[in-house]
Specification:
The protein has 168 residues and is α+β, with helices and mostly antiparallel strands. The chain folds into two domains: 77 residues, no CATH class; 84 residues, no CATH class. It is built from five helices and six strands. The protein has a two-stranded antiparallel sheet with strand order 1-2. A two-stranded antiparallel sheet has the order 3-6. It has a two-stranded antiparallel ribbon with strand order 4-5.
């Protein structure tokens, strides 16, 4: 790849520049007009990254009529790299809250002396559908709560999550 001056065709000191590269077009010859896709990514210091829309191209000159389905959009059209930081920090916040909230709840129940009474309410059978759904949520929280009751297991879980977060 070489840097070329747009006006004179050779590398110079003034004018806009573009990159010129030799490529083997025979490798991209295909009867299907939607087999290969072209996407241009431009990175500038001041403006950041600009990305063109992916378009099918054919060396043979075939025109492609292509419609992107929702599943194809998730695979090709969606910019996952922009969503990654939100997913990462959201997942870390969820994991840390799953460790911290039951520990605080355990501390408050033990301070009030109601830990055994709360566990007995979890184990009591439900009478109707609404209380059964509430009981199911309560049982799931109880499973996480039991992890917080054992300090050794809770500390090991916290250390494991910290290692995954800060020592990838």
């Amino acid at each position: 790849m070489r840097l070329v001056d747009y006006n004179s065709g050779i590398r110079g000191e003034s004018g806009p520049y573009y990159y010129d590269a030799v490529w083997n077009s025979a490798e991209y010859a295909d009867d299907s007009p939607t087999r290969y896709w072209l996407e241009i990514i431009l990175e500038e210091k001041e403006k950041g990254i600009t990305v063109s829309e992916p378009r099918p191209f054919s060396v043979n000159g075939h025109l492609g009529n292509f419609r992107l389905t929702w599943l194809g959009y998730l695979g090709i059209g969606f910019r996952w790299e922009k969503l990654y930081p939100f997913l990462l920090w959201g997942m870390l916040a969820f994991v840390f809250s799953m460790l911290i909230v039951p520990k605080v709840f355990n501390f408050q129940l033990e301070k009030a002396g109601l830990c055994e009474a709360w566990i007995m309410t979890v184990l009591r059978p439900a009478s109707d559908f609404r209380t059964m759904i509430f009981k199911l949520i309560k049982v799931l929280f109880w499973v996480v709560f039991e992890n917080a009751c054992n300090t050794c297991i809770w500390a090991c879980s916290l250390a494991y999550v910290m290692c995954l977060t800060f020592l990838p």
